[in-house]
Amino acid sequence: MTGSRRRSWTDPAAGWRRQVAERLESVTARSRESRYGTRRRSWGMVGGGFVALGAMFGLVSGNVMAVDFTSANQSYKIYTDRVVGEYAAGYLSAQSTQDGSRAMAQVGFKTADLYGLCAIAHQDLPAPLGTVSLVITGGEVVDGNPTSGAGELISANELYIASDSLAGQGQNIAQMTLGQDAGTLTMDDIDTHRGTPGAFGLQARLMDIADLDAQSYGIDLRGSINLPGLRIRVVNGAASKAAGHCEP
């Protein structure tokens, strides 16, 4: 019994590590203008981290595991054509980072449906590599036209995001309370997402937001998520939605 359970856990990860490693090798081959030792070592360092992250998202896409991770000093962009979140709550707090702390809006949803997902992270590597980007996409193409055909909708439970910048179009927001005591916030039957007692809080039964553009410093997914059509790739330069990197 134990051996069988161990095999079911490790085999998906191994498969995704191989797939992401192959993609990284392909990118490396295309961008290798020189054969400096520093260049090879730099790709090795970033490749190891990207392979681990890619394997983790691979497991998530198959509902094998839940995600619980936060970023440190570096923010990353998150885009979706539409997010429909139920039982939302938010408050302000200071989030610790490696170089100190930053003021963040901590927003949580008991459940959330996403019409496509595109996450872009940048990293500056030693010369001659320069800036590279990790692009993660799932569900429908994030192009400003939410459709979510059969099998493309992304559904998440207990989704939390720490952000200092959130923008979008509020299409349908229901039963919202602004200025609620942050120490009394609830997400339906979840009462663990609370801020400083007496401070500003926000709570809503429904938040339907189109064209979400978020600058995120951390994501916590304490429940589960499906990521149909998951794609992970490394590209040279500073990738962006405007430049079409959220599309195939």
Task: Please provide a brief summary of the model.
This protein is an alpha+beta fold and 248 residues long. Helix content is 22%, strand content 45%.
Integer average pLDDT: 79
> What is the helix content?
10-25%
Order of helices and strands: HHEEEEEEEEE
Helical segment tally?
2
Q: Which range does the strand content fall in? A: over 45%
Helices and strands: which structural class?
alpha+beta
Radius of gyration (CA) equals 19 Å
Largest sheet: 9 strands, antiparallel
Write down the overall geometry: globular
Q: What is the count of β-strands?
A: 9
First-to-last CA distance: 41 Å
| Unreliable spans | 1-14, 27-49, 64-70
What does this structure look like?
By secondary structure, the chain is α+β, with helices and mostly antiparallel strands. The chain has a domain at 66-236. It has 2 helices and 9 strands. The chain has helices at 2-31, 37-61; strands at 68-70, 76-97, 100-114, 117-125, 130-138, 154-174, 177-181, 200-221, 231-236. Strands 1, 2, 3, 4, 5, 6, 7, 8 and 9 form a 9-stranded antiparallel sheet that branches. A hairpin with a 2-residue loop joins strand 2 and strand 3 (100-114). It is globular. It starts with a helix and ends in a 12-residue tail after the last strand.
Topology record:
Blueprint: H1 2-31, H2 37-61, E1 68-70, E2 76-97, E3 100-114, E4 117-125, E5 130-138, E6 154-174, E7 177-181, E8 200-221, E9 231-236
Antiparallel strand pairs: 1-8, 2-3, 2-4, 2-8, 3-6, 4-5, 5-9, 6-8, 7-8
